[in-house]
UniProtKB/TrEMBL annotation:
<feature type="binding site">
    <location>
        <position position="80"/>
    </location>
    <ligand>
        <name>ATP</name>
    </ligand>
</feature>
<comment type="similarity">
    <text>Belongs to the SELO family.</text>
</comment>
<feature type="binding site">
    <location>
        <position position="238"/>
    </location>
    <ligand>
        <name>Mg(2+)</name>
    </ligand>
</feature>
<keyword id="KW-0479">Metal-binding</keyword>
<keyword id="KW-0067">ATP-binding</keyword>
<dbReference type="Pfam" id="PF02696">
    <property type="entry name" value="SelO"/>
</dbReference>
<keyword id="KW-0464">Manganese</keyword>
<feature type="binding site">
    <location>
        <position position="100"/>
    </location>
    <ligand>
        <name>ATP</name>
    </ligand>
</feature>
<feature type="binding site">
    <location>
        <position position="113"/>
    </location>
    <ligand>
        <name>ATP</name>
    </ligand>
</feature>
<protein>
    <recommendedName>
        <fullName>Protein nucleotidyltransferase YdiU</fullName>
        <ecNumber>2.7.7.-</ecNumber>
        <ecNumber>2.7.7.108</ecNumber>
    </recommendedName>
</protein>
<dbReference type="GO" id="GO:0005524">
    <property type="term" value="F:ATP binding"/>
</dbReference>
<keyword id="KW-0460">Magnesium</keyword>
<dbReference type="InterPro" id="IPR003846">
    <property type="entry name" value="SelO"/>
</dbReference>
<dbReference type="GO" id="GO:0000287">
    <property type="term" value="F:magnesium ion binding"/>
</dbReference>
<feature type="binding site">
    <location>
        <position position="81"/>
    </location>
    <ligand>
        <name>ATP</name>
    </ligand>
</feature>
<feature type="binding site">
    <location>
        <position position="163"/>
    </location>
    <ligand>
        <name>ATP</name>
    </ligand>
</feature>
<feature type="binding site">
    <location>
        <position position="78"/>
    </location>
    <ligand>
        <name>ATP</name>
    </ligand>
</feature>
Amino acid sequence: MSFNFETTYTALPPTFFREVSENRVKESQIILWNKRLAEELDVEDEYANTALFAGAQPRDYITQAYAGHQFGNFTMLGDGRAMLIGEHVHQNKRVDVQLKGSGRTPYSRGGDGRAGIGPMVREYIISEAMNGLRIPTTRSLAVTTTGLPVYREEVQQGAVLTRIAASHLRVGTFQYARHMVDEHAVRELADYAMARHYASLEKGDYIGFFRAVMRRQAQLIAQWQLVGFVHGVMNTDNMTISGETIDYGPCAFLDVFHADQFFSSIDQQGRYRYSQQPAIGGWNLTRFAETLLPLIDDNEEVAIAALEEVLMTYPQVFGDAWLAGMRDKLGLATARMEDRNLAEQLLSWMEANQADFTETFRALSEGKAITGLAEWQKQWEKRLEIEGTTVEAAQQCMRRVNPAIIARNYYVEAAIQDAEAGNMDAVEMLVEALQNPYEVKETHQHFRTPPTMQNPYVTYCGT
Ligand code: AMP
Ligand code: MG
């Protein structure tokens, strides 16, 4: 089967998008093709269609308008280097097929609309890693080189990522509608988003809509915290309405556990550090709530009170999701008052002892001895006793939720360097390991080792 593009997004008022048709590509070549995802989407035979994935096929593409708070400052944004090919429907699911890095668009502002091979390969790897960890995420179908140079700090080969997403509706899309268009646009957008992502809600139940988005985001961020994922740019334009993780720029997984870790070179204040992510989620959701006010009640005070009531539950919803996930990580099947404390003590121990986040949970799951953790382990075993479970039984469950392999910076960067030199083997092997992070093949064992690094790892946004 091939793509059955049909686009519902363009039924929105024209203020939400611009069409582009012209594109310039020299010699395109698909360098990464996600076979698994292609099968899921039923588009196996699209592989030959290189021109499509490089953005070279003459057809109408859609670029979407959005705004957003970037590091706290409100700006007009939009698809400056991305274009929607269309929506593909498979097994009653509708997904956006989008090209990222395919050239200038009406929203490019000063940018060239292009992307380098490094950052696109990075997104390919990390999004597949997230999917392997069962965390909602946009996916990567292909990386295609364009044969054009891209000028950043150094010259890079241009590349295009084919991104698959439940949709590209963002908190920033609502901010655009509310602050740059009008109330009518917000209503159209909300109705569209609800029909597309929250179809079980009654039409016009905007409070229910807000609550549903809030829940998905709370769940999502809890899952990030539980695997030590630092997104790096939690701007409101990078927060989806669908609840998928989007935009893998300066993101990274923690190795040694530091709650205040951040990786982005442009995040000088550490606004988006690991420990801040839940709070930033709340901040972004507050911006989202503001956009919905006119739909809730004509009297603004009444509308604010109604949304605040929902928003106030966010810390609890997040906390519950996090604790439930922590119980799974610790092999606890029932809930007890002391569980949060038990989990927090383990994290404090990790931080004080510079322990690797992923390896600590995994070692516990595999019954490996951990130096210096005996006191805590005694408490944990007592807690398991109360449940009437054996440690071995608990560990069996734990191995299904505590990954052995995460996308460690060192291996991601090494694979990217090979890719830049034209060799995709390391990327393919890493991605294969990341697709099943709970069972480690012999040939993938080395990905577990946390490499010792001299300098703190920094990721760059110059993508
Ligand atoms: P991001 O950092 O990917 O979330 O992008 C933030 C905004 O900058 C979005 O509006 C992007 O479309 C835009 N942008 C990023 N890189 C480029 C580029 N090379 N050319 C044009 N716009 C870009
Ligand atoms: Mg973005």
